[in-house]
Write a structure and sequence with these properties.
The complex is a heterodimer of chains A (102) and B (213).
Chain A lengths: L2 H4 L5 H22 L4 H23 L7 H34 L1
Helix pairs in contact in A: 2-3
Chain B lengths: L2 H9 L13 H30 L7 H4 L2 H26 L3 H31 L2 E2 L2 E2 L4 H4 L4 H33 L5 H27 L1
Helix pairs in contact in B: 2-7, 2-8, 4-5, 4-8, 5-7, 7-8
Classes of the chains: A mainly alpha (102), B mainly alpha (213).
């Protein structure tokens, strides 16, 4: 049901998304300053980076209001390709590092 | 698009037909363009990950090289401009011509401010000795032990993103002018908005992976 149907302002979604994005950004900056364990910081920042990306794509770019197959094509395509690429890159970088150290 | 045409577009399903994604061809093409452009940044970020993971020189603490509050300000500007852009798209859809123009104008101001901040950051770092090939010998950055791949990654990632901000701004200014002259339909504003949000989306990844991690 759209915002106009429920009587809420159609602009509300942008304000709310904007506020949440700002809170997440401040939390990420604070985490970086807190000298947390590296693995925890890594997971924390990566998770919230993805949350921010989903919020921008879903609410600002209206992807969650589009047909699901469009969202699958966009989100799935980028995510799967990036993960495969990173998988190869990560493996190769370890190999190069081992060779350099030797 | 008249009502019958719009209904036909929205009723299309997985089976394909005239509109498999339930969107106009303009929007579908824009999304396909965004996917390809996102893959460009995905490749750049993976290249950055490779250089960083395979490097033997220690990675400097970003807060010692950059002013993180300044980068946070740039992030704030971009997120805010995305919010005003979203409002412009909705106002255009609802036929609120004045509000759409106002929001587009604020978005353009946000984009200009972001580019100004980036120009300042680049000139500051170049002044400190940063070059595409690494830190200049004897410069403050070289004294801090900044490895060449750090400045390379900085210029390539922020340079590509900045060029997208610049092209986004040109699109926004053209859309703003044409909207003011009643020569652009609301879909034109929506297309410009999609591109602008994409620029914001890419920044989320650069901000986290390069400036924070």
């Amino acid at each position: 049901m759209s915002d106009t149907q429920t009587g809420a302002s159609p602009y509300r979604i942008y304000w709310v998304t904007w506020a949440i994005l700002l809170v997440i950004t401040v939390a990420m900056l604070a985490a970086e300053e807190l000298h947390l364990p590296r693995w925890f910081l890594l997971v924390f920042l990566l998770v919230f980076m993805m949350v921010k990306a989903v919020m921008i794509a879903g609410n600002f770019m209206h992807l969650r209001f589009e047909k699901r197959n469009l969202a699958f094509m966009v989100g799935g395509g980028i995510l799967v390709t990036s993960l495969i690429l990173y998988g190869f890159v990560s493996r190769e970088s370890r190999h190069v590092l081992e060779q350099t150290i030797r | 698009m008249h009502d019958g045409g719009h209904a036909a577009v929205m009723e299309a399903h997985w089976g394909g037909g005239a509109s498999p994604f339930g969107a106009s061809w303009q929007k579908t093409m824009m999304w396909i363009f965004i996917v390809t452009d996102a893959l460009l940044f995905s490749g750049l970020l993976c290249g950055y990950a490779f250089l960083r993971q395979a490097g033997t020189q220690p990675w400097p603490r970003q807060s010692e090289v950059f002013s993180i509050p300044f980068i946070a300000l740039m992030t704030f500007i971009l997120i805010t401009s995305s919010m005003t852009m979203g409002s412009a798209v909705t106002a255009a859809r609802l036929g609120d011509h004045k509000k759409a123009r106002l929001m587009l104008g604020i978005t353009i101001l946000g984009g200009l401010s972001f580019l100004g901040c980036q120009a300042y950051e680049w000139s500051h770092l170049i002044h400190e000795g940063a070059r595409l090939t690494g830190a200049l010998a004897g410069s403050p950055l070289a004294a801090e032990g900044v490895p060449p791949i750090f400045t390379q990654a900085f210029f390539v990632l922020t340079g590509f993103h900045g060029s997208h901000v610049l092209s986004g701004l040109i699109i926004l200014i053209v859309t703003f002018t044409r909207w003011g002259m009643h020569k652009t339909p609301s879909q034109g504003v929506e297309m410009a908005g999609l591109y602008w949000h994409f620029v914001d989306l890419v920044w989320v990844f650069i901000f986290t992976l390069f400036y924070l991690l």
